[in-house]
Write a structure and sequence with these properties.
Elements lengths: L6 H12 L3 E5 L14 E5 L13 H7 L4 E6 L5 H13 L1 E9 L23 H11 L3 E6 L5 E6 L15 H6 L1 H5 L1 E2 L1 H8 L7
Parallel strand pairs: 1-2, 1-3, 3-4, 5-7
Antiparallel strand pairs: 4-6, 5-6
Helix pairs in contact: 3-4
Length: 203
């Protein structure tokens, strides 16, 4: 049985392979991910996190006053899609050339965990919807989802053939589940690091 791959494993692999030096995490909570990231410079933002050194403010407040740029930005704060998308769009403005934005919870398999209302236990929220809308509407981005740890989405400036829907308003969870592989540009962990990320070094 293969060992489980977590979001921090993917982020640390990106940092190592790409030589990234700086990391921003939006939505730290108790530091499960932040504390495992191995990088020269890391910054955490979360208004309610008990972790020492984390900036106790909303992501909107942080982006309003921030003057730094980062190689990797992990978006895992508010799991409702309008805020998740806003965090991604703000992150694009401060992403270093060649950098990447990482999103958690893009692969929401069960509808009861994929809602805008917080549920007890597992809650993927509507991050899946936000990621999907970017896949549908933004040809100026390059987007993938690694099929591990509830779906680890990767977003960076580039070019993509947007997922084609005649009416994006029809993007229900049922439709998303039916065409999830195509919408998320779903890829396995080893396949991604063998076939996709090596090409980033030349972009």
């Amino acid at each position: 049985m293969s060992e489980r791959i977590w979001r921090w494993d993917i982020i640390n692999r990106l940092i190592k392979d790409m030589g990234y030096k700086s990391y921003l995490e939006i939505g730290v909570r108790r530091g499960a991910c932040l504390n495992r990231i191995e990088v020269d410079k890391k910054v955490g933002v979360d208004p309610r996190s008990p972790v020492e050194g984390v900036k106790k403010m909303s992501s909107d407040e942080f982006f309003e006053e921030n003057e730094d740029t980062f190689d990797v930005i992990f978006v895992d704060g508010d799991h409702r899609w309008p805020q998740a998308v806003r965090d991604v769009l703000n992150s694009l403005k401060i992403l270093n050339p060649g950098g990447v934005i990482v999103m958690h919870d893009c692969m929401a398999l069960e509808e009861k965990h994929a809602t805008g209302e917080h549920t007890t236990g597992l809650w993927n929220g509507t991050v899946w919807y936000g990621f999907s809308m970017l896949r549908i509407t933004r040809p100026d981005l390059e987007m993938w989802t690694i099929a591990e740890d509830h779906g680890v989405g990767l977003v960076r400036p580039g070019k993509q053939e947007p997922y084609c829907m005649h009416n994006a308003m029809e993007l229900t969870h049922g439709y998303y589940r039916q065409f999830m592989k195509e919408i998320l540009n779903l890829v396995g962990y080893e396949d991604f690091f063998r076939d996709v990320s090596p090409g980033w070094e030349d972009s």
